[in-house]
Design goal:
Elements: E1 5-7, H1 12-20, E2 24-26, H2 32-37, E3 45-48, E4 58-61, E5 64-68, H3 73-78, H4 80-85, H5 87-94, H6 99-104, H7 107-113, H8 120-127, E6 130-133, E7 137-139, H9 140-143, E8 144-146, E9 149-150, E10 158-164, E11 168-175, E12 182-191, E13 194-200, E14 207-208, H10 210-218, H11 222-226, H12 243-262
Length: 263
Amino acid sequence: MYAFTLERPATVADAVKLAAAGGKPLAGGQTLLASMKLRLSAPEQLVDLGGIKELTGIRKDGNTLVIGAMSRHLDVANNADVKAAYPALADLASRIGDRQVRAMGTIGGSVANNDPAACYPSGVLGSGATIVTSKREIAADDFFVGLFTTALEDGELITAIRFPIPKRAVYEKLLQKASHFPLVGVFLAQYDSGVRVAVTGAGNGVFRHKGLEDALNKSFTPEAAAAVKIDASELNSDLHASAAYRANLISVLTQRAVAKAVG
């Protein structure tokens, strides 16, 4: 490791000032610290968000769950309100990485990092959640821009994420055993306004699948999902799986998710 300074602000306002001046926000550190060790990232100043109480806490507000950005994966997985109101989200959090990652990683850090194979972005996009920042509120459909890229501006910090509670939802993934990231993950949520299907691990970032959503809005059945052709032309192909295999996984995992949702 190389020399750098570490700041520990106590308020969001102080953290924003430090970040605006060039400090690198540190949430759970599961990606950032590994990148620093590999010299892929070399910030001169880290801004540790761990001491900011404003960024913690989980509460149910009407038909919405509000989750503080510094909530650990284990916090979300074990929270009584989340387990009762949105069990699919608790399930997603309970299966991220391994226990050490779940004990340190945060929802805000994962969403801000926007790894193309991370679990949380699919839950956020699949829920049509709202990302609350130090400056504004951003709809999930507008937040995830591309590979490791979001709508966040320099110095802007995620403070919380608001999840509308669905009628039913399921998260299905096939684990990449070496990395514990999903080879492909599908988050499916049904609301009065319609079905949302978000896919992670298959492309250069999380995305919604309109074909599956349209089919399931007409008939919420595994057969309807199976009838949708999944285009593999823009999907990832690597040593772990071909694009065609990932396309097939999207279909299979969506069918499983629907079957589980309908019981």
